[in-house]
């Protein structure tokens, strides 16, 4: 069983959930390519890291979900990472050849920190700490297409506005299942941090 990133359910709305995520650590890489292919292109780099391509040759357990976000979104070293697009819409940064640029990340197991995580040997792979956050999340099944992502992103943004929640940062795309799983059984989520008034 793959470990999942824990969270506390703050409120269950009719269209989405408001969750509080704890501080955690990501291993990430920036990949150019179409939205639908970014995760697959990044997988070999990230899987190599957790399989021992690090300075102590140590294997690291993989935790769900896999996260994708835009590489153009300016973040602090402690901000979160998933699959995410630029301009607040999750579409990705488009390069000169029509390629988009995305950050793709694995979440490392609970208790892993910058101090005790093995350093990557590949210069393209980086570790990043993520602070706790209050996050709006919409869950959906289906293919990992940009069209589906956009549809659910718009739904989540609208539901957040109705609920009076203010977005803090760009949306992130989270995938919980392997590519061989039938699309109608897949667990996908879009996550947007919100202003924490507590």
What is the secondary structure topology, with strand pairs?
Elements: E1 3-4, E2 8-12, E3 17-21, E4 24-33, H1 35-50, E5 63-70, E6 93-94, E7 100-107, E8 125-130, E9 133-140, H2 146-163, E10 172-175, E11 188-193
Parallel strand pairs: 1-5
Antiparallel strand pairs: 2-3, 3-9, 4-7, 4-8, 5-7, 5-10, 6-7, 9-11, 10-11
Protein name: Heme-binding protein
Organism: Arthrobacter psychrochitiniphilus
Describe the protein's architecture and organization.
The chain is α+β, with helices and mostly antiparallel strands and 198 residues long. The protein folds into 2 domains: 3-19 and 132-193, Phosphorylase Kinase, domain 1, CATH 3.30.200; 24-130, Multidrug-efflux Transporter 1 Regulator Bmrr, Chain A. The chain has helices spanning 35-50, 146-163; strands at 3-4, 8-12, 17-21, 24-33, 63-70, 93-94, 100-107, 125-130, 133-140, 172-175, 188-193. Strands 1, 2, 3, 4, 5, 6, 7, 8, 9, 10 and 11 form an 11-stranded mixed sheet that branches. Strand 6 and strand 7 (100-107) form a beta hairpin. The protein is globular and about 50 Å long. It starts with a strand and ends in a 5-residue tail after the last strand.
> Given the helix and strand composition, which structural class is it?
alpha+beta
The CATH H-level superfamily of the largest domain is: Regulatory factor, effector binding domain
Strand content: 25-35%
- The portion of residues assigned to helices is 10-25%
CATH architecture of the largest domain: Alpha-Beta Barrel
Shape: globular
Query: First CA to last CA: what distance?
Result: 34 Å
The whole-number mean of residue pLDDT values reads 86
Could you please say which CATH topology of the largest domain applies here?
Multidrug-efflux Transporter 1 Regulator Bmrr, Chain A
Total domain modules: 2
pLDDT < 50 stretches: 74-91, 93-97
**Radius of gyration over all CA atoms, rounded:** 16 Å
In N-to-C order, the SSE pattern is EEEEHEEEEEHEE
Protein name: Heme-binding protein
InterPro entries: Reg_factor_effector_dom_sf, SOUL_heme-bd
Pfam families: SOUL
Organism: Arthrobacter psychrochitiniphilus
């Amino acid at each position: 069983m793959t470990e999942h990133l824990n969270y506390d359910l703050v409120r269950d709305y009719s269209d989405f959930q408001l969750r509080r995520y704890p501080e955690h650590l990501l291993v990430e890489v920036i990949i150019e390519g179409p939205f639908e292919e970014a995760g697959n292109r990044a997988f070999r780099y990230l899987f190599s890291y957790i399989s021992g391509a690090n300075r102590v040759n140590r294997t690291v357990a993989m935790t769900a979900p896999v996260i994708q976000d835009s590489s153009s979104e300016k973040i602090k070293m402690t901000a979160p990472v998933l699959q995410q697009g630029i301009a607040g819409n999750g579409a990705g940064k488009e390069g000169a050849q029509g390629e988009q640029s995305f950050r793709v990340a694995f979440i490392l197991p609970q208790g892993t920190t910058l101090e005790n995580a093995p350093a990557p040997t590949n210069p393209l792979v980086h570790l990043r700490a993520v602070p706790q956050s209050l996050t709006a999340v919409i869950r959906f099944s289906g293919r990992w297409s940009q069209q589906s992502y956009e549809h659910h992103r718009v739904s989540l943004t609208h539901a957040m506005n109705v609920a009076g929640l203010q977005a803090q940062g760009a949306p992130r795309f989270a995938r919980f299942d392997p590519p061989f799983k039938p699309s109608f059984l897949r667990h996908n989520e879009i996550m947007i941090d919100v202003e924490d008034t507590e």
